[in-house]
From TrEMBL, chain A:
SUPFAM superfamilies registered for this protein in UniProt: B12-dependent dehydatase associated subunit, Cobalamin (vitamin B12)-dependent enzymes
Record domain Diol/glycerol dehydratase large subunit: where: 4-551
Name of the protein in question: Propanediol/glycerol family dehydratase large subunit
Origin species: Cryptosporangium japonicum
Coiled coil regions, renumbered to chain: none
Entries under InterPro entries matching the protein: B12-dep_deHydtase_bsu, Cbl-dep_enz_cat, Dehydtase/Dehydtase_re, Diol/glycerol_deHase_lsu_sf, Diol/glycerol_deHydtase_lsu
Gene3D superfamilies according to UniProt: B12-dependent dehydatase associated subunit, Diol/glycerol dehydratase, large subunit
UniProtKB/TrEMBL annotation, chain B:
InterPro entries: Ppandiol/glycerol_DeHydtase_su, Prodiol/glycerol_DeHase__sf_su
Protein name: Propanediol dehydratase small subunit
Pfam families in UniProt: Dehydratase_SU (PF02287)
Domain of life of the native organism: Bacteria
Length: 741, 162
């Protein structure tokens, strides 16, 4: 049996994760497989006759499409002649313009770009991402789904996600036929939360296209590419069908990106011994070749497979940078939960959050983990405050903002009521007010009143079969008193006519400006350049709801004020050898009334006095007014005590035992961790002080055990309370205090 | 449910753009793309597939039942404009996609979905793909026709024809 230290480690969440020995034969290899082809490109008469070691006659469908459509043959000889290291340095060097990197990468074969990206170390990937992402302003995307496909909850959660700042929302279904209902509910909810939020419903390709054509969604993403022909064909598509589908979306003015990422081929048993990065390089080259404006990658569903092998998380980020280098929108994974460990999942995301991305997450789960019909995300509703804190810690824009808690009840209600009105308008379903109340307050679908699965199915079928379109929904919203929301939905439909959001990396600002590679290009060129949040945006990042000022703490303390501690005049020097003096800090009984552990200061004093008396000594309380230093408070009090022994107490709860002949910073016993102290601890301190007064040597009192982040929790309060203490300091003598019984 | 579905029947095979629209009224210069908002009303000159000026597509018009699906569809010349913008921003493949898309504006939703389905693996014989290419050519969708012909060749070589 393992020793205790290992037994303890075995119980850590990280050890629920699976870790694989690298195995190129199975494709369980991140960056460089011995079976990856050497980069090569031969061009004859303007035609590619060899690509990465494969002759034209042997091209599979992926090679063939990339060779015909994907490469800039005028730049290819120049690009392929550069060494991998030379190209890698161009990606990282901020003095080299993004456009120059994009120009050269257009001439790189998939194997070449994979070799280049495999050279970049994590800090270099972060640098490359900072420079190469398409859009200047970072953004984020979130999942909105629930297990019941409940339209009221979908709408309330979509509005909530929009309020938190997500600019794209992705829904999907546990029951395929529910898709039209989900798409409508999320689109309405998003419009209640904010203007300009893009919405998609991830389902099988043909149905997803239909939802787009009907106007129920404003972008599409579940258009999957794979890195080997076998898996691609198993996925029931070819590069040509995907290219046509891509144009089908554009022909209706609908934004679209493709989806790929490490691990998919491994999971489908078709990796052909290639590394994950090489296979993904084929996907990304193909994405560019078919004319998609962007790619969702970085593992996605296969993220945990990549994370199981050495350098797998680095590979996920390299995939994202590859997309950016090919001049495409990057929706950078951080999607499926890749570890049970909070440490690992944070580690996986952090460099991307720091670098900034077109969409930092390609699916932040804005709902409860159990309600995420894509599976739990790497980031979920319970992590929203963590994300906001991380943005604030690093001073970076991770795309989110604080939704004021008091705003959410009316917002969620309006979203649910809008859906109720639209579903009633078309006779889709009669959703009750009771159901609205439940959806508004629900943490997740477990809190709903019943699960009307057939009702949802019926509504979805009616939407699909009746020829209803999003214009009808606009009309129903307007007629039902939701004019602003109707106007927002209409704006999204009109955006399709203008087409600006078809350009690379486009999102809408809340004022419906299209921000894209074209209108908001990333101009990072080293320190002092590139995206900086506006003052208003920085304030959103900084002003999280938990932040407290000194004024906040002063007000909180004032709410505990009482007449239980009063001054009765100047404190005399005592002469009774049984006397122990309790010296308290200047703000005690003036501005500070409660300690960090939540005890009232008067209760703490009563415990100390009781402990002193219990041992047959006499206690009295004085306020030291000229110092807030606990050692000096204790020493000053000891010099007033007939026994020469004192207890020093800061109002925030820190305490010690002092003796009049010791140096100020020495003491006999010390409680340094005020937030964990209980009444019993303070009583023991009184007892021990009395024993010292008697000349005995008691067993010293010690801080209780704790492994909590005490400093993190209380340091801001400590700083504020110390400031209050300093404000109460004055060069006056000590006061004798009377403490209520 | 006042909304008509699909493209107008009147679209002639060789006229991708509805003929009611003058080209110069639709294809704006690329400068107008930058940093503009159309929330308060459409940017000048943008017309829908139907030829209707986008600024006339208002909430009141929707409520009055005076907005059709084609009033909210993109015009092929707008896609050509977007293709030029994409090409100017280092992405000729995105431009090519927008040009294929411009052709497909004239194709019905159901036909778009039918052709997509036909291009999936082992759905069509070589001859059926050739027929689709001809059908597309007849409707002026010559770039898409070429794409389908190219697919037929590769599918045959790789065993992806039915």
């Amino acid at each position: 049996m393992a020793v205790g230290r290992i037994r303890r480690l075995d119980a850590q969440p990280v050890n629920l994760d699976g870790f694989a020995v690298e195995n190129a034969d199975l494709g369980l290899i991140a960056l460089r497989s011995p079976h990856d082809p050497a980069p090569s490109l031969r061009i004859e008469d303007g035609r590619v006759v060899e690509l990465d070691g494969v002759a034209e006659a042997d091209f599979d469908t992926i090679d063939a499409f990339i060779a015909t459509h994907g490469l800039d043959l005028s730049v290819a000889p120049e690009a392929m002649a550069l060494t991998d290291v030379e190209l890698a340095r161009l990606l990282v060097d901020f003095a080299v313009p993004r456009a120059e990197v994009v120009r050269l990468v257009n001439g790189c074969t998939p194997a070449k770009l994979a070799c280049v990206l495999a050279l970049l170390r994590p800090a270099e990937l972060t640098m490359a991402m900072t420079k190469l992402r398409a859009r200047r302003t970072p953004s984020n995307q979130g999942h909105v789904t629930n297990r019941a496909d409940d339209p009221l909850l979908l709408a309330a959660d979509a509005a909530t996600a929009a309020a938190y700042g997500f600019r794209e929302l992705e829904t999907t279904v546990p029951v395929l036929a529910d898709a039209p209902s989900n798409a409508v509910a999320v689109s309405i909810g998003a419009a209640v939360g904010a203007a300009g939020v893009l919405v998609q419903c991830s389902v099988e390709e043909a149905l997803e296209l239909e939802l787009g054509l009907r106007g129920f969604v404003s972008y599409a993403e579940t258009v999957s590419l794979y890195g080997t022909e076998g898996v691609f064909t198993d996925g029931d598509d070819t590069p040509w069908s995907k290219a046509f589908l891509t144009s089908g979306y554009a022909s209706r003015g609908i934004k679209m990106r493709v989806s790929s990422g490490a691990g998919a081929e491994v999971l489908m048993g078709g990796a052909e011994k290639r590394s994950m990065l090489y296979l993904e390089s084929r996907c990304v080259a193909l994405a560019r070749a078919i004319g998609a404006q962007g790619v969702q990658n970085g593992g996605i569903d296969g993220a945990s497979v990549a994370a199981a092998v050495p350098a797998g998380v680095r590979e996920l980020m390299a995939e994202n940078v590859m997309v950016m280098a090919r001049n495409l929108e990057a929706c950078t994974g951080n999607d499926a939960l890749m570890s049970e460990s909070d440490v690992r999942r944070t580690s996986r995301t952090l460099p991307i959050l720091l670098a900034g991305s077109d969409f930092v997450c390609s699916g932040f789960g804005t709902i409860q983990r159990y309600d995420n019909m894509f599976g739990p995300s790497n980031w979920n509703a319970e992590d929203l405050d963590d994300w906001l804190a991380m943005q604030r810690d690093w001073g970076v824009d991770g795309g989110l903002r604080t939704a004021p808690p008091e705003s959410l009840e009316p917002l969620r209600r309006r979203a649910a009521e809008a859906v109720q009105a639209v579903y009633r308008w078309f006779g889709l379903a009669d959703l009750s007010d009771e159901s609205i109340d439940a959806a508004v307050d629900a943490v997740g679908s477990k809190d709903l009143v019943g699960d009307d699965a057939l009702g949802v199915l019926n509504a979805a079928r009616t939407i699909r079969e009746s020829g209803l379109s999003m214009v009808d929904v606009v009309s129903a919203l307007a007629e039902s008193g939701f004019e602003e929301e109707a106007s927002r939905v209409l704006s999204m439909l009109k955006a399709r006519v203008v087409g600006d959001y078809l350009q690379t990396a486009a999102i809408f600002s809340p004022s419906m400006d299209a921000l894209s590679l074209v209108t908001d290009p990333n101009d990072y060129a080293g320190p002092g350049t590139g995206y900086v949040p506006s003052a208003a945006r920085q304030a959103e990042i900084d002003d999280i709801r938990q932040a407290r000022s000194v004024a906040d703490l002063r007000a909180e303390q004032a709410s505990w004020a009482s007449s239980s501690i009063v001054s009765v005049g100047p404190a005399p020097v005592g002469s009774d050898p049984r006397e122990v003096v309790v010296g308290v800090s200047p703000a005690t009984g003036r501005e500070i009334w409660r300690t960090l552990s939540g005890l009232l200061v008067v209760d703490v004093l009563q415990e100390i006095l009781a402990g002193i008396e219990e041992e047959g000594a006499l206690g009295r309380v004085v306020r030291i007014n000229d110092t807030l230093d606990l050692g000096m408070i204790g020493l000053s009090a000891a010099r007033l005590a007939g026994s020469g022994i004192s207890v020093g107490l800061q109002a925030k709860g820190t305490a010690l035992i002092h003796r009049r002949d010791l140096p100020p910073l020495a003491n006999l016993e010390l409680y340094s961790v005020a937030p964990v102290l209980s009444r019993a601890d303070y009583r023991l301190l009184g007892v021990n002080a009395a024993r010292h007064a008697r000349g005995a040597v008691p067993e010293p009192a010690k801080n209780p055990y704790t492994d909590e982040a005490i400093e993190a929790r209380y340091h801001t309060a400590v700083v504020s309370l110390i400031a209050v203490e300093r404000g109460c300091c004055s060069p006056t003598g000590p006061d004798e205090l009377k403490v209520a019984e | 449910m006042s909304i008509s579905q699909g493209a107008p029947d009147a679209v002639a095979p060789d006229a991708v753009a509805p003929d009611a629209v003058a080209p110069d009224a639709v294809a704006p210069d690329s400068a107008r793309v930058v940093g503009r908002s159309f929330d308060a009303g459409a940017p000048d000159g943008v017309r829908a597939f139907s030829g209707r000026a986008l600024e006339s597509v208002t909430l009141d018009a929707v409520r009055a039942g005076e907005v059709s699906t084609d009033d909210l569809r993109i015009h092929p010349e707008t896609l050509e404009h977007q293709a030029q913008v994409a090409a100017d921003h280092g992405n000729p493949q995105l431009a090519a996609n927008f040009r294929r898309a411009a052709e497909l504006t004239a194709i019905d939703d159901t036909d778009v979905m039918r052709i997509y389905e036909a291009l999936r693996p082992r759905r069509s014989t070589f001859a059926e793909l050739e027929e689709i290419a001809d059908w597309l050519s007849e409707r002026g969708a010559v770039i898409n026709a070429a794409l389908v012909r190219e697919a037929a060749q590769v599918y045959q070589r790789r065993g992806l024809c039915r």
